[in-house]
Design brief:
The chain is an alpha+beta fold and about 240 residues long. The chain contains four helices and six strands; from the N terminus they run αββββββααα. A hairpin with a 4-residue loop joins strand 3 and strand 4. Helix 2 packs parallel to helix 4 and helix 3 runs antiparallel to helix 4. The radius of gyration is 32 Å and the shape is flat. The N and C termini lie far apart (about 110 Å).
């Protein structure tokens, strides 16, 4: 998108992925070469922050704030299996004597360090997603109570039909957004958890497979010979 087009978004409202307005575009940050690399955002609570340009999506007249948790989760779910597969490929090459032991140890340590950090990052994402899920649950509960109270007041005639319909539609839309958001965070949390669990299961499976191979070799070994000592009759005193 051209520079002039992006600058036209200044002052535009920013919505999250569920249609809720979270702030507005205040300005943009550019590199010395003129490339957009940041967006200055004023959030609804008055907080003014600098966000990476990748955290917002500009389509038509709409500006959408992309969930940091979801975007980071997608990256981690791609990177963790990739690094793990590279480390396994490295081990296979070492087992086949196609790579020097010293180089294997160096690269393995590097992969292991990266994988450890990625797993820590993934655990943080899981915890942050859990917090968001709980927030959505609280919001859903509050909205449910609000709808119930609206229904009661309408039933006893304290809220007229026009206001009832308007308020009911507003609450239902908010409930729909909160439910969708909760589902997305649950999916994200489950996805990242599955990647971590899958890595653990793969390790356990390899350990189990190795043990099974050892047992299989042991079962194929011949039984030890049975030695029978026979004494001569004269010497046995019979």
């Amino acid at each position: 998108m051209s520079n002039s087009n992006l600058f036209l978004y200044i002052g535009k409202p920013i919505k999250n992925e569920y249609g809720r307005i979270v702030g507005k575009v205040a300005s943009f940050g550019l590199t010395p070469g003129g490339k957009f690399d940041a967006v200055f955002v004023e959030f609804g609570d008055g907080q003014f922050t600098k966000q990476p340009i990748e955290s917002l999506r500009f389509i038509g007249a709409e500006v959408t704030f992309i969930s940091k948790i979801k975007s980071q989760a997608n990256i981690l779910c791609d990177q963790i299996p990739l690094i793990w597969r590279k480390d396994q490929a490295l081990k296979d090459l070492s087992d086949k004597k196609r790579i020097a032991p010293e180089l294997y140890q160096e690269l393995h340590a590097s992969f292991n360090s990266v994988l450890t950090q990625l797993k820590k990052d993934a655990q943080v994402i899981i915890e942050e997603a859990a917090i968001e899920i709980e927030r959505c649950r609280d919001e859903i509960t509050s909205l449910s109570y609000a709808i119930a109270n609206l229904e009661i007041e309408h039933e006893i005639g304290k809220v007229d039909e026009e206001n009832y319909k308007s308020a009911f539609a507003l609450l239902q839309e908010a409930l729909k957004r909160a439910t969708s958001e909760k589902t997305d965070y649950e999916t994200t949390k489950s996805k990242v958890s599955s990647v971590l669990l899958g890595d653990t299961q793969d390790t356990l499976q390899k350990t189990k497979t190795y043990a099974e191979q050892v047992n299989a070799v042991a079962q194929k070994l011949p039984e030890p010979p049975v030695v029978v000592y026979v004494k001569e009759a004269g010497k046995a005193g019979i």
